[in-house]
Amino acid sequence: MDQFLQLTVTGLTNGAIYALVAVGFVLIYKASDVINFAQGEFLLVGAYVAAFLIGDLGLVWPIGAVLTVIIAAAMGVVIERLVLRPLIGEPIISVIMVTIGLASLLRALVLGIWGTKPKVFPAFFPKNEVYIFNAVVTTEKLGAIAVAGVFLLIFTLFFRYTREGIAMRAVADDQQAALSMGISVKRIFAMAWSISAITAAIAGVVVANTLEVSGNLSAIGLTVFPVVILGGLDSIPGALIGAAIIGLLEAYTGGYVGDGSLSQVIPYIVLVFILMVRPYGLFGKEIIERV
Amino acid sequence: MQSGIFHSSYQKDMALRHTPAQKVRLLLIIVFLLIFPFLADNYYLTLANQIGIAVIGAVGLNILTGFTGQISLGTGAFLAVGAYTAALLAIRFNMPMWITIPAGALMTALVGGLFGIPSLRLKGLYLAIATLAAQVIIIWVVTHWDTVTGGVDALFVKNYLWFDGQQVRFNEFKFYWIIMAVAVLVVMAAVNLFRTRPGRAFIAIRDQDIAAEVMGVNVFRYKVAAFATSSFMIGLAGALIAHWRQIVTWERFTIEVSILYLAMIIIGGLGSISGSIYGAIFMTLLPAFLLNVGQSLGSAIPFMDRIIPFIQQAVFGIVIIVFLIFEPEGIAKMWRNIKDYFRLWPFSY
After folding, report:
1. What ipTM was estimated for this complex?
2. Is B78 within 8 Å of B111 (Cβ atoms)?
3. Taking the alpha carbons of A207, A210, A212, A216 in that order, is the dihedral positive or negative?
């Protein structure tokens, strides 16, 4: 029972991070039909910038975190304007490849500037141990879940109630109709990229706080694929539920099945299964094609 | 298409080379390939072998992605299947190279065809994600199936047996002939493939799968065939890597390798055999060139050594982005434009 609780908390912590990254991913896909392979590198940039501002420059962490978010937002806009906009209307493979190229470039920049040695991040959650029933849980993990939860709530409210959020949903739903209602689709694309860079950067800060900052962080960008396929590529609630399921599944297989190495591939086995049975995921829009 | 060339028979229409210039160029290339190993030192021979293997893999991937329109992120894993099959046959069963290499290719064709089955239901980016899963799962199996593959430890392929079962010492020079022979065969097979019914069916599936089905192309069967054909060639490349490098580890077959091969065919030209060759040459020479430049600058700039790998990676990303934005049809198209410019000169409009 103790182990079960511990694994649950670990799983949910990972799930919270996946959720932040996945939400950005889904946002870009919904708004502009682009699959972003650089999402993991966005997270890497966020983690390293935060580690640099807070760890190396010694800023207090609220200021450091806000600056990180601002830098991430700017990066998202610049990338959309310079790299993605010229490719509007190009075939899928071009768009996939351009984000892969982008991933390679961002990764090289980050590791070239800050080196490959793992950095230790000055923690802003106290690393205490808390007992839930009899299971030992560290507060940093609970803090990560809380931060992710708060931001996901903020984004949900943003899409529901603000003018920009509603405009983004309109573009996701029907670009032509949104254009004729006076919404600037280009601006929405830029916003989608900057918001998803922000969510990834927040995830980066959270990850950096629970683990150490290293180049391996970008691997989370790949785990996002099982998450979003499971939840449905164009569904934000789906991304959240998918993230929780994949996070928990990884934790439980890691803890209970054999030597735990299966947990590295279990998300992809789920991915293949979902693709064969229900390619549009649990909550995605169903597209029926018969060829 | 060129003006001033008239095909007066079907035979001429189907010819691969129409003009004397094209024939002369082909002759020059053959002469170059034959003379090159006698003039080059070991460094350039190694590069040439690397390019030869990259050409085989890139042509294979281009058949699938460029001609049939099925995006694959699993090239690295398919290379691994070929390499491990060949290496294990050579080590465990002492089989000679002329058996292990085709066996590796056949095994990869089988696995590739198997992973092609989801293409019945999945298209475009969903298929790309499925092949990404294939990549992760195959590499996981390779690193965890300890009893067969040796897990994360490297395999050493030292014994070279030739036709008569005799041990032969191979060096870069001898491997050059093997790799080039295979590369030339693969390129010829690929060029001719698209003059046959299956080749045309592949292109029809890429352009309009529904129309292809209506015109009597069995889309599913040809998609699986495309996966198998492409994987066969990628498996050849993998098996050659195993014997040429003598060391087989999973680290040579990661997702980065899949991306490298995709970059080759995109930069060379999707749906173009000559494009695959240009792309393979370009993407193999680029990092080597950057390394040389970096090392010669290394004496002037103290931290150069440390950042060379990152410069290579950054340039890799930039090249992909710049090509996709400014010349999405790749080097093959640039080469055509240059030829057109001079053919029509001075009235090139």
Report:
1. 0.86
2. yes
3. negative
Angstroms from B87 CA to nearest CA on chain A: 25
* pLDDT one-digit tens code per residue, B57-76: 999 999 999 999 999 999 99
DSSP state of A123: P
Chain A residues 201-240 with CB within 8 Å of chain B: 222, 225-226, 229
The full set of domains in chain B, from first to last, is: 40-344 (1.10.3470)
Helix (H, G, I), strand (E, B), or coil: what is residue B328? coil
Query: Domain boundaries in chain A?
Result: 2-218
How distant is the alpha carbon of residue B142 from its chain centre?
A: 22
pTM for the structure as a whole: 0.90
Rounded Cα distance between B340 and B349, Å, is 10
| Six-digit token string for A71 | 């830098």
Q: Nearest Cα to A44, choosing from A112, A140, A124? A: A112
**Closest of B285, B266, B286 to residue B276, by C-alpha:** B266
Secondary structure element (H or E) that encloses residue B216, with its range? none
Helix (H) or strand (E) holding A274: helix A266-277
pLDDT of residue B96: 84
Q: What pLDDT sits at residue B88?
A: 92
Residue A29 C-alpha, separation from nearest chain B C-alpha, in angstroms: 11
Q: Which residues pair with A136 in a beta bridge?
A: A131
Query: Where does the pLDDT of residue B183 fall: very low under 50, low under 70, confident under 90, or very high at 90 and above?
Result: very high
Q: Which residue in A7, A14, A62, A211 sits closest to A127, CA to CA?
A: A211
| Residue A96 pLDDT greater than 90, yes or no | no
B265 CB within 8 Å of a chain A CB: no
Distance CA A63, CA A205 (A): 13
A103 CB near a chain B CB, below 8 Å? yes
**Is B178 near chain A, with CB under 8 Å?**
no
For A202, the 3-state DSSP assignment is: helix
Q: Does A94 touch chain B (CB under 8 A)?
A: yes
What residues contact residue A149 under an 8 Å CB cut-off, 6+ apart? A16
| Residue A122 to residue A212: CA distance in whole angstroms | 10
Range of weakest confidence among A73-77, A86-90, A128-132, B149-153: A128-132
B window 35-64, beta carbon within 8 A of A: none
Of A83, A112, A222, the CB nearest to B314: A112
Task: Give dist(CA A204, CA A43) in Å, integer.
Answer: 5
